[in-house]
Amino acid sequence: MATKLNKKDRLRQLKIEIDKNPFYTDDELAELFSVSVQTIRLDRMELGIPELRERIKNVAEENYHKVKAIVGSEIVGELIDLELGKSGISVFEPTPDMAFLKTKIIRGHYIYSQAESLAISVIDAEAALIGVANIKYKYPVRIGDRLVAKAEVIRKRGNKYFVWVMIKVKNKEVFRGKFILASLESDNTEKEVQ
């Protein structure tokens, strides 16, 4: 915003911005409106808009009931958007205990787990397993990074789902994976996955 808004206009615009993107941090909003973080927090309180973590949690809770293949609590990160059989988005903020002590870089299996659980969540099946995973870690993820994963079902052939997952930190791709998932019939879980 080029010019500073008066309080009434700022409150109105703040509501519009958070409605458009509920994942803005208070720091980002303060920069956007050229005010202090404290001013943004007071404005949010006045409008009854919860803090970022609560907004993410609220959006995620609306989506967990849609998931068929795994239990919502098994999803790594917060599931913020889900269209079964098509696409999904999750947000994950790794904690310091997930990092290597020396480098403060997040261990790869946490990043993979976010991608895997999102890939399983987006397919429209009662039970599924990863049959093939072709993954690439592109950049290190550090403590404090917020990972935004987007999954898309590219194709379905028989009981196989082809899902692409990209994970970004601040619009920079840090991980990508192509997964082939097998939908399992509930009475035949011993069937070969590939």
Write up this protein.
It comes from Thermoanaerobacterium thermosaccharolyticum (strain ATCC 7956 / DSM 571 / NCIMB 9385 / NCA 3814 / NCTC 13789 / WDCM 00135 / 2032) (Clostridium thermosaccharolyticum). Pfam families: 4HBT. One of its GO terms (biological process) is negative regulation of DNA-templated transcription. Keywords: DNA-binding, Fatty acid biosynthesis, Fatty acid metabolism, Lipid biosynthesis, Lipid metabolism, Repressor, Transcription, Transcription regulation. GO terms for molecular function: DNA binding; DNA-binding transcription factor activity. By secondary structure, this protein is of the alpha+beta class. It folds into two domains: 7-49, Orthogonal Bundle (Arc Repressor Mutant, subunit A); 63-183, Roll (Thiol Ester Dehydrase, Chain A). The chain has five helices and six strands. Strands 1-2-4-5-6-3 form a six-stranded antiparallel beta sheet. Strand 5 and strand 6 form a beta hairpin. Helix 2 packs across helix 3 (37-47). It is globular. It starts with 6 loop residues before the first helix and ends in an 11-residue tail after the last strand.
